[in-house]
């Protein structure tokens, strides 16, 4: 949503919250913040607990990294999330 649209909604009394998580920590923070905004704090906390300690098998500091199908098969992850 661009700023003009946000301002129009706010002028009409519509609550606006914008989130742009860029990593898993940001995603979990967003879930918790949404829970607080909607009065569903415990549901958000519960959802955050189901992450089950997952670990990214792609070890790189860059946001986008080439990772071939062969590398994926060699890593042998329990789950593959796109």
* Total of helices: 4
Number of strands: 0
The separation of the N and C termini measures: 24 Å
Give the percentage of residues in beta strands. Answer: under 5%
Using the CA coordinates, give the radius of gyration.
18 Å
Specify the helix fraction band: 40-55%
Note poorly predicted spans: none
Rounded mean pLDDT is 85
The SS-based structural class is mainly alpha
3D shape: elongated
Query: Could you give a short account of the major beta sheet?
Result: none
The sequence of SSEs as H and E is HHHH
Quick description:
With 82 residues, the protein is mainly α. Helices cover 49% and strands 0% of the residues.
Structure, described:
- The chain is mainly alpha-helical and 82 residues long.
- The protein has a domain at 1-53.
- The chain has four helices and no strands.
- Helix 2 runs antiparallel to helix 3.
- The two termini are 24 Å apart.
What descriptive keywords fit this protein?
single chain, 82 residues, mainly alpha, 4 helices, 49% helix
Q: Strands, helices and their partners?
A:
Layout: H1 3-11, H2 24-38, H3 41-49, H4 69-75
């Amino acid at each position: 949503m661009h700023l003009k649209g946000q301002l129009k909604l706010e002028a009409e009394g519509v609550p606006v919250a914008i989130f742009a998580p860029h990593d898993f920590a940001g995603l979990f923070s967003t879930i918790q913040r949404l829970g607080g905004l909607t009065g569903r704090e415990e549901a958000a906390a519960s959802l955050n607990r189901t992450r089950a300690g997952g670990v990214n098998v792609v070890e790189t500091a860059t946001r986008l990294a080439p990772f071939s199908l062969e590398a994926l098969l060699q890593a042998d992850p329990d789950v593959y999330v796109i």
